[in-house]
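Predict structure. Chain length: 479.
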Amino acid sequence: MVEAQQKKQAKKMLWITLAMMAFSTVWGFGNVVNGYVYFDGTKIIFSWALMFLLYFIPYALMVGELGATFKDSEGGVSSWVNETMGVKWAYYAGWTYWACHVVYISSKGTGGLRAMSWGIAGNTQWYDSLPTVTTQFATLVIFLFFCWVTSRGVPVLKTLATIAGTSTFIMSILFILMMYAAPAINPHASFYSINLNWKNLLPNFNLKYLTSLSILVFSVGGCEKISPYVNRLKDPFRNFPKSMFALAAMVMVSAILGTFALALMFDPKVINAHFNEYVSNGTYMAFDRLGKYYHVGGLFMKIYAWCNVIGQFSTLVLSIDAPLRMLLGSREAKLYVPKKLLKLNKHGAYINGIWMVVILSGGLIVAQALLPNAQAVMAQLVKLNSTTMPLRYLWVFAAYVALRKHQKQFKSFYKMTKHQWLAYTAGIWCFFVTAICCLMGIYSTDPMTLLLNILTPIVLTALGLILPAIKKHEDARIG
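Prediction complete.
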């Protein structure tokens, strides 16, 4: 018996292993570039530090407690909400998670075509010169094709997404290391000098800053994906906090070093003068310039671009399929979703659910044809994603507050803190920060972007409220 327990303990995960898994899941090079572009270069460092200390660390520790308490639940956030708040709230949590992906799905086709342009031509001059109607039509065709692929069931795409995601992550880390080595490799290349005075490190707390904070919330979110691994740690009460602090440290170091690496390449004044171009193409431009420093031309950029093509398109299929299965395959779906949406085809896909995705995400793709150009579309999608995707995190914090309120009903081997007041404060604080940042992120000086930022969450919320009413009417008619 003792020997069996020792073997089981030997198989437990080390805290550093979980930290590395979480790092590759949460973080990406695009987050560094978006922060640099939206927050005037090195002025982002102050904001990154605050975001990690006051938001990301408590968020990750709360996820750990939820994961440890409901270690046998496989439904993630919806399961937590179901256990702590009830089945109806769990439906709304599942709906929010799915609805957030409607915008995300529409961005994958755009991102994939842009990556393909970089991979083939080495730039996007031809692609960006096309009328927006043309680029959005191409995006719509790509989107419809992958909706069809989803309806047929192609499991190999999950493997491709993992390979592509791992490759782009490794290249992101290599970019930072190689960029710091570049001045020694090619000392005669043009590098910008970094002035580390307070003026260049402290942000300007203006309207642009406040309405861009959702970008940072979006960047550090998603650590609830690692919750199933809490119970696999050796001594989780001590080691899970270690993992999360190590994760925060790695992300912070990556963000700061990545920011300084970009500061050697790009002048914030030039970025502000060509904002949409850098939002759309910043990652590719960075790898392109790195290749020139190393005298290999566009090699690094093209490797990154083709990894991104595979990643964007395979993620498109997974983002259509996985959230839909989580929503319609849950126990709550049978109570609150009309039967027609629960229909499975012979390949095991929710075919009417896919049609719902076609209508909503396809409608957004068509609406964006009214924007002036392809760069504006990409910039608009980044902003819209930043104001909608973090809404799913609200349910994490709501479930945590509810958990602590009813903590006597649940047993857990790990708690973020023994102090109830601190637990409540952390949960309410993170909920408040997320909600406020999302609301402020809706604002835009561009009328079309502002309209889409307002209408998209309203339409998706209304649909989530209407479906239970349709289901109720359906049940009454049958009864």
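Summary: The radius of gyration is 23 Å.
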